[in-house]
Structures are given as structure tokens and as C-alpha cells.
Amino acid sequence: MVAFPVPLRRRRERAVAEGQALITTADWHRPAVRWGIGSAQLLLLVGLVIVGLGPLLWLAKSAITPTTDTITHPMSLFPHGAAWSNLREAWSNVNVGRYFWNTIVIAFGSWLSQIVVATTAGFALSVLRPKYARILTALLLTTLFVPLVVLLVPLYVEIVHPPLIHHSFIDSYWAVWLPAGASAFNVVLMQRFFDNLPREIFEAARIDGAGPFRLFWSVVLPMSKPILGVVSVFAVLASWKDFLWPLLVITNPDRQPLSVRLPTIQSQTELGIFLAAMFIACLVPIAGFLIFQRSFLRGPGLSGAIKG
Amino acid sequence: MTDLARAAVPHSRPHRRSRRTPITWVRGGGLTTLIFLLPMLLLFGAFSWYPIARTVIMSLQHTNLVQPATWVGLDNFRTVLHDPLLPKAVENTAEFAGLALIFGYPIPLIAAVLMSEVRRFRGIYSALAYLPVVIPPVVAVLLWKTFYDANSTGVFNTILGWIHLGPYPWLQSQRTALPSLVLESTWANAGGTVIIYLAALTGVRRELYEAASVDGASLWRKVWHITLPQLRGVLLVTMILQIIGTAQVFLEPYLFTSGGPANSTLTVLLLIYNYAFGNSLGGDYGSATALSLMLAAFLAVFSLLYLRATRSWSTS
Amino acid sequence: MTAIEFQGVSKIFPDGTRAVDGLDLAIAEGEFMVFVGPSGCGKTTALRMVAGLEEISEGAILIGDRVVNEISPKERDIAMVFQNYALYPHMTVAENLAFGLKLRKVSKKEIRNRVQSAAAILGLEDYLERKPGALSGGQRQRVAMGRAIVREPRAYLMDEPLSNLDAKLRVQMRAEIQSLQRTLGVTTIYVTHDQTEAMTMGDRIAVMRDGTLQQVDTPERVYQWPANEFVAGFIGSPAMNMVDARLTRANGELEVSFGDSTLVVDDGLIVERPALLSYEGAHVTLGIRPEDLEDQSFAPEARPGQRLDTVCTLREALGSEVLVHFPVGSARFVARIDPQTAAREGEPLRLVVDTRRLHFFEPGSGLAIYDQAGTVGDRWPASRLSPASASST
Q1: pLDDT digits (tens, 9 = 90+) for C230-248
Q2: Global pTM?
Q3: Which of B2, B5, B15 is facing C24, going by the closest CB pair?
Q4: Fold (topology level) of A96-307
């Protein structure tokens, strides 16, 4: 059935009850097990902190450390005080602020493009169910199996020399927004979610007098908030992380997103300011992750949760 | 007393389905469906299906963006196959994929198994593991590039210096460059695999473990006879996905070393990029598409063989 | 005035199955018609064809005097109550009720009035701002009904609305729905698989099986004059007892013998079922309802031709009555007798049969034997067959 979000605490309790069967409570009482597995888990936790958090903490520290200190004593903690100016300089002088804004604009457009395509196509395939739905779904699935590398060159050529319109789309954000929408994964995800909605609600709406557009807007979309959240989070994150494609199609430095600019920034500015810029680039993904943890960590298991 | 229709009203003719005209199609909602499908059809048509077709076509052509393209048959494929850089790229890519499998495959599994038995705070484990995945890859690579500074004052060299190891050349030596890339790549991606494994592990039915416990199975036996078999499907899928993913690695070689030193980190994707967009070769779209097709074909064949070989092992 | 009419309606699915086959039926204005039958009999499909949710393969459905085959559900002016309520989960009760009206561009004031009055009738006033997730099953069912009421349609279509409720609530809601329908006077088609619901609620019930209409008439008449074996066995609980029998004439009386027993067919019964005479000497299927049997000790005035002696194999005490099971030839019969009965398992059982209420069916076709010497009552509803209508035609 429909996967409505369960209050976080209840789910965590249930999650603890799941798993946790490999080692029974009886096993835990045995000292060998408790100390053995327990210390392994502790070791793992320490390892995760060092490995997962370490590099980021270093980045945060170095972002506000004067360059010379970072170069000569990378592991020491503010031997000569902090340099908050790194951040300010990165933001304004190095224009990180502008690139940050570019990234936001690109992310928004890509998100919108993906949402529009996925919801309308998923709705048509799942609710309206035309006779040719199978063919379309098959075509969609084949794109999932095609490695991205295959699309790179022809897409680029298409942007530079669009078939019918004699105007290059290089440097236009549309070159990033529109291809982003062609994500078969999103469409299939939406379609499966809609498949799991009770059909009778659609019938009731039909009898109430709702046409397809009304059904889509007033009934199906509001009921789809959970899946829209997941798709949105992943869409924004994917856009934020995107590098190669924006690198290829946006050549004007003023319009490039942050990830594309960072290598150039590294070669053109001092280390401290560069690290500050990197830190700023991480803020949105990390903040998003902390806020929407649920969506991220449920994501990979989602296909199972939604199935059938 | 109600009387019945049959006696009173003549039986109407069986209703025949009206002819399928455009009007009936519109009235039947066909147009509306098409309108809903329009965004998908347009975007996929333009940016998915058409490019796929174009790749095949372009691999058989010589394209320069000024004049119309000319057909050159299999010339591009021949050029690519005779490129001395190709064997190096294939070798490096294979080495990368292999190393990534060694590092990035078992470690997340062990971590996930340990994590699945954590009673409280499992969320912290998951969050920490997944954090590197959330970081934009460019940031991750450039950050590790500073870590890999070959000077003794580079971050890693400093840390290793505390235990009297190094300094190591990291990205500057042909021997250590590729493994350094794999290390960063594993750091950045293992978290996703951990989460997938964790989800699969918590899906294993408790009753199986409980029955085994009652039967007196030790911990290792339970892992070997229950956990791993139940996870078979997920394990096999993540393996093939990882291989396919690492075979297409581009960012690390591009940003860390640009394929150097001495092409020791040149991968197939980087070669394709250089063909199409590189400064020295650049503009050779024919070779680029030819090589992409060859890579895609190879991955397809590999996947099929893989699926066939593992069919008997995967869960239904 | 006919409110809804089926004319030779069939529903044929792509794989060839006929879910509904040649249905002819007329429902009067304000009537509470119940479609009843086992799962898969086509009752829900027939309902959905009236609603416009299923395409009509053959025939025509008329609402008022209008053929509605090609008309969308929205235009048919009907309202439906679904088995699973189908409430919009993201809207409050008030919004759920108002949705259909909003789509029809009814004025805000009018919407408010209708919602308020429906809520008042159904006791939902305190729940108008809640979402369906916060309501109990019975409350959700009422909201589903409220959605139908506010639309003020020509007809209500109800698809097993009570089957998701627990037994006690079901009985309560049954009465509420009935009184509601009587107050509002709206034509209603009600689908159920529960014959008790059908019998208690319907003005008329239409019994269906495998897509065909078996019989349509008032509950009493379906009970007393079932058109065939299926209807006879379906209506009434416990089900009618059936056994192979032979009709013979002895001592100037018509007798029916089965197993080791023989009963004398009451003369009054022969008057009601003249066709019986043409079955003299032939095999028939005899049907006796459990409630038409009684312990001899409680029916002392019974004649010898009404006696049935047997052995009790199982006794079930229900408090208000006792059910005894006993063998008859190779069949097993059930009788509903007085709770004070002395019958015991394994002991002889002496019963009396109400021979004015015997049922006879033609072996093979299963059709009930009623009127017109030489002909067998055909499958058409009993109102054409029962003595009362026979005298009026």
C-alpha cells in the first residue's frame, strides 16, 4: 500500500526491532559476544567519525585558517588565530556568492523540469493508462540501461547545433534544465507510487465530476507528497553535484555553477580562500542531508517499500 | 405490483462499438492523455532517444561542426582500436574497477552487518556513513587533492609522519596515482552501498535467525548460512552496478591527474572526453562516439554474461 | 415511473467472459433495489455499468428516460458509495463532502447548507474538520454516504458499503441506511453478497448468478416462490434442504417419496403449482426449508402424511432455536426446531413437515415447478409465476 510517513520515533523503534536478530538478546549476555561485537561496533563508530566526518571537519577548520598555516601545519588548530576573512573574500572577491546563486537557479530549474515530467508522465501511464502504455514504459526502461557516456557527445552536439533551430544553446541554462527532466528513474518511481494509490478514489472523483486535470491537481498530487519529497531531494542534490555537463555547456564563467568553478578557483586563488569556497559549496548539501535525512536514507530501500 | 421491462419495452439492438474516429478518440480522453505525456515525450525524445540514435550515426560519420557530416563507415572504430592510448586506458579502467571492488565491496558489507545489530544510535552510524556521498564530488576530489599533497607538509603525509611513515608521492607517482584515486572514490561512494545493504539486512526475516539460534548455530554460521544467502540478490546487483559505475569513472582522473602521470590514470571515459573535448585531440566526435559505443556494448555483453552466470545463485 | 432500466445489458471482458449476460430489469422511482448473489455473479459489474465506471458491451441502460451508455459518470446524476469508502485522505470531512459540489459550480452558500444538513442527518457535525485518517470505520462509512447525499442525485449506487464493518455496527448501519432512504426517498441500487442484508433492506431483491438474473421480486415472494434451485438455496439461512424424490399417486393423493420417507402433498399446494400434476410418476427435486420442519412433540395435530422419522446426527443449540442435522437418503438435512426439543445426538428423531410449504424443482434444469400444466416455470421472476400475478395477467 501507500507508504505514508510514519512518525520518526516510532519508525526508529521498529527499525531497532528489525535487524538485530542475528545476535539474540541471549547472545548479548555472553561476555565474549558483548565485548567482541561491542568493541567491533565501537571501532566502527570511531572509524566512521574519523573517515566520514574527519575530512569535512578539516575542511571547516581550514576554511577559516590562514593559508600559510594550512600549508605549513595542516593538522594544527589555529596556531595564529582564525581567518574569517577567507569566507568573506571567497564570497565576494572570488564571486563564490554569484556562483552559489547560479547553482541555486540551475538546481531549481532542473528540479522543476524533473517534477513536471515525472508527475505528468507517471500520471498518464498509471492513472489514465492508454493502450500504448506498455510500449512507452519499455522505451523508458531501455534508457535506464544505457550508460550515460553514450549520450554525452550527441547531446553536446545537439546543444551546439540543435536540429531545427539555428541557434546554439551554449551558455543557456535551458541546456541544463531540459535534459535533466529526461530521467526514467523518476518517471518509473512516480508511476509505481501512483499504481499503489487506491483506484476507488479515482472512481469516486470521476463520479464527483472530476476530469483528468482536476483529478491530477486536486486528488493525485496532494496524495503524493511523500514521493514528491523524495524525488525533490534527490533532484536538487543531483543538480548540486553535477559537474561534467554544466562544464561542457556553460562556458561563460559568470553563469557557471559552483562545482564547475571550483577547479579554476583552486588554480587562481590562495589555498585558504579556496578552501573557504569549498566549504560554502558543501553547506547546502549537508544542511539538506541533515534536515531530510529520512528521505535520503530511505531512498535506496524505496523500491522495496513501494512495491506491490 | 411492478411489471417487468421485458414485456413492456421492445428489446433494443445490441449496442455496437462506434467507429474509431479521431472524434471518438478525443472524447475517450485520448487527447488528454497525450497532453499529459507531452513533457515526457518532448524531453525524452529530444534528450534521450534522439541522442542514443545519434551516437550510433555519429560513430559512422566524420563530424565537424562547420560542414555537414560525411559517412566514413567503420573508420572511426579502426582509428580508436589502433590508438596506442586505448590499451592503456582499458588496463587502467580495469585496474580501477578491480581495486574499487576489493576495497569498496566487502567493507560496506561488514560495516552494514555490524550496524544492523546496533541497538540505539543506528541513525548516527547511517548518517556518518552517508555523509561523504552527499558532498559534491568536485569538492570531495579537490579536497583529497590537497590531502594528497606530496610534500611532507601535505595532510596525509603529515599524519603518516606521526607514525614515521612516508612521505608518499601519492598522485605524482605512476605506481601510487591510480590507487589514490580508488581510495577517494571508495570514500565518496561506499556510504550509499552501506545504506543499501542495511536496508536489505533489516529485511531478513527474524524467524530464520531465531530458528537457527534454537538449532544452536553460532554467529559465523548464521552469517554464512542465513545472512549471505538472503542477501544474495542485493549483493549480486550491487556488484554489477559497481562494476558498471567504476568502468565509467571520469571525474577522479580528470580532476586529480588529468590522466597522468604518464597516462597511468587515463581511463576510457577520460579518453572519450579527450577525443571530443580535449585540447590536443578535441573535436573528434567520431572517435568519441565510436569508443562510447564500444564501451556500452562491452558493458551490455558483460552484464548479460554476468546475469547468466549468476542466475543459478541469485534468489528468485 | 421507471427510474433506472436495464435493457438486454451485457458486459463482455476482453478474454470473453460474460460478467453480465442479457440483464433486463426496471427499477421504479424511489425504490430500494438490492442486487444479491455470490462473488463473481456480476452484481457489482452491473452497478458499475449504471455508474459509468464500466463500459456497456451490449444493450442499453436508461436513467430517467435517457439512454446513458455514452454519457460520462459526471453527467448521469448518480452518486456512489464504495465498499472501501474512497474518501479523499488529504481533505477534511467537510471538503470531502463539498468536492463534488464544487466541481459542479454550486454556490458556496448552497454548498454550506447541503454539507450542514447532510452532516446533521448523519451525525457528523462534530467531525467536519477532521481528516478521514482520524475517523473510525463507521464514521468513514457515514462520510461516504454523506458525499452521496449532498449531491442530491437521481439515484444512489451502493457497493457493499457495510462489508468492512464489524457485525454489530453492520446491523446498526443497516437500519440507519434503510430509514435514511425512506426519508429521502431516493432511488437506490444496493449490492451485497449477504442475503440477510438483502432480505431485510430491499423493496425488491434481484438475485444474480454467473452474470444472469435469476429472479427479481419482493423479498417475501423470492423466499416463498423461488424461481429455481439456486435462488431457493441462496435465500434463507440455513439453506433449503434438497433431495431427489419421486412423485407418485396413492390412495387418491399425490405423494412424494425420498429416501425412506414419504410425504403427502397438500392439496392447496397443488392448486398453487398445477404443473406438478404433469410430473406424476417422475423424478423431481424436493426442497424443504429448515424452518418448515418441527419436532413432532410440538406439533401434535400433524397428520401421518406429514411425519418424518429419522435419526439426529448433530445438534446445535442457538438459544432461540435448535438446529438438528439428520440424514435423508444420501443427503443431509437441517431442521430448525423449538429450543425445548428433547432431540439428542444419536437418538431417533421424529419430525413433522409443513406440507403446504414444499418446494419442487425439475431435476437437471433446476427450475421451479409452478404453473401451467405441461410447462415448467421458466427463469423469469416469480411475479409472473405466482398465483397472484397469474390471476392479474
Answers
A1: 999 999 989 999 999 999 9
A2: 0.80
A3: B5
A4: MetI-like fold (1.10.3720)
